């Protein structure tokens, strides 16, 4: 099929074991509808670990002067649902996913989580089919621009994203930000924001904008967790 040929060109790899690729592209909704005994969740689990390792190694090699904390922030900015979904679209993965009829009707083929999970599953399948070197080469290709520019931008200091990703990996609920009060003059207000994780207040911060106050609160929470210094 032409769509698969374009996909193979995008990833510069052709699977020897096609059943691995089919499994990687099979969303649980399709598996349930078709009565299959497999879906892409196991390969997604494997792919997540491989991606973490590959990106860690690439950052370690490219940024020799960066300390552990900075490298961790960079990795969090590169390995997250939003970024992986973006890369999945770039290689045309959305056209190849097997999704159930109900999932299809609700836009499941373009959902960020499905795309990101699908890409991780494909990378996990590639690891089994062709080895780690193939996977790292593809990840380096997909993230070439981001790997070059991440140290020049503030993207790796997006504390809100880092915190959310950290909680997701722990299977915990997303953080909640609430404006406690607005103080100061009308034309120059200061927003006081409280950050809750699973209904527990973990940080409070204030700034001239709600967005900045949330960012500072997220940083405080990460500091308390020992994630940043």
Brief account:
The chain is an alpha+beta fold. It folds into two domains: 2-152, Ribonuclease iii, N-terminal Endonuclease Domain, Chain A, CATH 1.10.1520; 162-225, Double Stranded RNA Binding Domain (2-Layer Sandwich). 59% of the residues lie in helices and 12% in strands.
Task: Give an overview in words.
The structure is a single chain. The chain has 229 residues and is α+β, with helices and mostly antiparallel strands. It has 2 domains: 151 residues, Ribonuclease iii, N-terminal Endonuclease Domain, Chain A (Orthogonal Bundle), CATH 1.10.1520.10; 64 residues, Double Stranded RNA Binding Domain (2-Layer Sandwich), CATH 3.30.160. It has 12 helices and 3 strands, in the order H-H-H-H-H-H-H-H-H-H-H-E-E-E-H. A hairpin with a 2-residue loop joins strand 1 and strand 2. Helix 4 crosses helix 8. 34% of the residues are buried.
- Total domain modules: 2
CATH-defined architecture of the largest domain: Orthogonal Bundle
What is the percentage of strand-forming residues?
5-15%
Assign the CATH superfamily of the largest domain.
Ribonuclease III domain
Assembly status? single chain
What are the segments in which pLDDT stays under 50 over at least 5 consecutive residues?
Answer: none
In the sheet with the most strands, the strands line up as 1-2-3
Q: What level of helicity do the residues show? A: 55-70%
Element string (H = helix, E = strand): HHHHHHHHHHHEEEH
Q: Separation of termini?
A: 51 Å
CATH topology of the largest domain: Ribonuclease iii, N-terminal Endonuclease Domain, Chain A
The average pLDDT is 89
Shape: globular
Just give the CATH class of the largest domain: Mainly Alpha
Cα Rg:
20 Å
Structural class: alpha+beta
Per DSSP E runs of 2 or more residues, the count of β-strands stands at: 3
Tell me about the largest β-sheet. Answer: 3 strands, antiparallel
How many H/I helical runs?
12
